[in-house]
Amino acid sequence: MNEAWTSLAWSAAAGLLWTLAAAIKLTNVGRVSASLAALCRRAPTLDLIVAAVTWIPWVLAGIAAAQGAPVIGDAHWSLAVLGVLAGQIAGLQLWCWGHEFANRDKVRGPRIVRYLNRRVGRFRNHAALWITALAYPIFWGIRFGEVAIYPWLVWTVRLPRYKQADWINVSRTKFEGLVGHDLIWCLYCDWMTGVYSLGAEMLRNVESFWCPIRFYDGKKCDNCKVDFPDIDGGWVPANASMADVVDTMHKHYDQGDHSWFGHPGRKVNLTVKGQPQLPADPSPLTPPDPTDRTVR
Fold first, then answer.
1. Cis ω on the peptide bond leading into residue 44 (within 30° of 0)?
2. pLDDT tens string 215-255
């Protein structure tokens, strides 16, 4: 029993110190180098930072416990992971208090946390926030798919490449008035919104490429068309034939563009009497010839 408590205590201390040190360092990185701060706010550096302050310490603690590290002892690895997690939570809270203390003038002004505490109650507001944190591993699963799985689809069937840093980045550190509690949770939302949006963008390509068929359930079509606009922008009706499906795929992929039909990178190919028209675009510096009757 004493060994278990020792494992928990040492792991919690390590998690707390690591989290505090990392948070303080990241808070002040902009004062050291603006270019380094910009690098830290975008993938792939951001991926490494998020991992380093969250799940990497869990893995290291579990490995250390499994190997019987001298400080942790022979306690079960799960106790070491639990201790690190508890230390991280405590370290995060200490950083929030410290950051708010250092920005007392902003704390006195309007704040998200103060308004929501009054609106739904302090306990329910904070409990709900930590409940959202339970989804964190799910977002890392999505992120893993974006990094390790989707690139294979680019290589095998030429789905479009993406500059992932345009989605996976955080910028709310620049918003005036976000401090402590508000800042850390807004950064969490900043990160996970980018992860989700990039995953949805990639999934649009997958769905339209392999299965451009509307659902029989009209309500499902209405619900899903927000994230999958091709439902109303090109997918065949649920009562169509397989010939219609193949014709649709031929129409949208015959030019070698394997993105979802409404993808912003697609060229708009006009047709005349059902035949595709692919004229060269005039130079933006040259006004069009008024005698040119080519259909554009």
1. yes
2. 999 999 999 999 999 999 899 999 999 999 999 999 999 87
Measure the CA dihedral 203/208/209/214, to 10°: 130
d(CA 138, CA 199): 12
* Domain spans of the chain, in order of start: 1-102, 211-266
The structure tokens listed for 204 are 């649009």
* CA torsion through residues 190, 192, 195, 199, sign: negative
- pTM value? 0.84
Cα gap 171→191, rounded to integer Å? 9
217: exposed, middle or buried (C-beta count within 10 Å: 0-12, 13-18, 19+)?
Answer: exposed
Contacts of 222 by beta carbon, 8 Å cutoff, 6+ apart: none
- Distance, in Å, from the CA atom of 3 to the CA atom of 109, rounded to the nearest integer, reads 47
Token readout for 252 is 């949208």
Interior angle at CA 97, CA 91 and CA 101, nearest 5: 140
**Once rounded to an integer, what is the mean pLDDT over residues 159-179?**
95
